[in-house]
């Protein structure tokens, strides 16, 4: 990978909550158009990394996106700069309709024509959302809410998506659907940083993977390499 | 029974055709204004009735503007009376001490506007530190603000101190109240259904998700608070010139509580609810006046019952069609492209 291909560069990232070190000196790069996955158990620091990238928490170290330092930039400006974060638990606006949920993601956008195209795109990607566009976000099923959360991130028109456990709480069939959609979105040109506990599925679709344990990267490699790694097999893929 | 329901549906359809007409609002506004002008010129409504209508209008302004913060944005501000006080004092000082006597009627709207701007400026100053906190903490900060305004006013002799300020002419007439009420309802309704308004709603729903969806939450909160306090100031100015006497005690936490009651009675996050809440509360208080002290027992009791049986208020989170936008440009375009679909533009 040549340096120009790198779109997101994280170096020596440290995040701590009071005295607890959640992320301890982590460095990794994401190439343009790639799917990169961070896997690890609960409390390994995966979500903290995403929160740091999208400006929700303070950190030390540096994060650059397309050569731009993201330090001290507010969350809403980071979205405008090109990174959309689908948070853990989805963050659906429960009392607003599906359509309103999607519209909020275009809050800072002025390109009306492109917004309409993106609406069409999201609705063709998720026909369920079109059917339910007038329903309240809180009335959707878990899978539909996850679709809405991803759809919202697409509506921001950000070239890079951070997905925090998109498979959480979904049935195996839905998990497969969601991962299929992630691949489709990636094919359409979005760069994806995927945080998952479902190591099997995420390593399968990712070009590059990192295994986290208590805030450190303990293993890294291509998706295939990691799937074949005996340690990963034993701990994350169930032997 | 079926006859009755048929009649009801005919009436409903007629009503919907009427309110769906694009000339409905302009005609309603002009008719309302003409009625108010006629009522105050020819006095076919007696003065007492006019005064009640004036209070209804002022309370609608207060309720709609507080609903923006407490209903639509989901924060809990109890400082509305403080902003009202600032508007009342700024406007009154202008009409009593600054403006030349004689042309008061012409300059009156300027005084009211100045009261609104004064309140908005203070609202801006309060918003910056306040919105570093949320929920209960914001309530405490605004409560403290309300107390500060009251004690500051009590300690400035130039504005009468605790004795209050008088000397205002009775400049608040029914047409002016109608105008300012219509203006505030119109502005806040348009704000709520704009892109900015969706940002306000998203803060109520989930502030972090809102940030992640590119909403500049800090900016939205400050602007909403400034707009809200601006209209509280307007209401204050009108109030002062209707009563022709103000003192700091009128604007204490009890006044804020009154406004809160109207907001929660009418229902949060609803323009129609704010209007209904203000009208019902103001008129009920007048009707119950013969009960004397018992009035203040009955009203809270009704509120308790309301909270038990209908915790979201009369209209909570619902809106009547009349206040909703007729069409939405983005979605309209979107569905027009998909001709196969039935044209479905409301959202």
Structure description:
- The complex is a heterodimer of chains A (239) and B (347).
- Chain A has 239 residues and is α/β, with parallel strands linked by helices.
- Chain A has a single domain (3-93, 158-236), classed as Rossmann fold (3-Layer(aba) Sandwich).
- Chain A is built from ten helices and ten strands.
- In chain A, the strands form two sheets. Chain A has a six-stranded mixed β-sheet with strand order 6-7-8-3-9-10, sandwiched between helices.
- In chain A, α7 links the parallel β7 and β8.
- Chain B has a single domain, classed as Orthogonal Bundle (ABC transporter involved in vitamin B12 uptake, BtuC).
- Chain B is built from 14 helices and two strands; from the N terminus they run ααααααβααααβαααα.
- In chain B, strands 1-2 form a two-stranded antiparallel ribbon.
- Classes of the chains: A alpha/beta (239), B mainly alpha (347).
- The interface between A and B is medium-sized, with 38 and 26 residues.
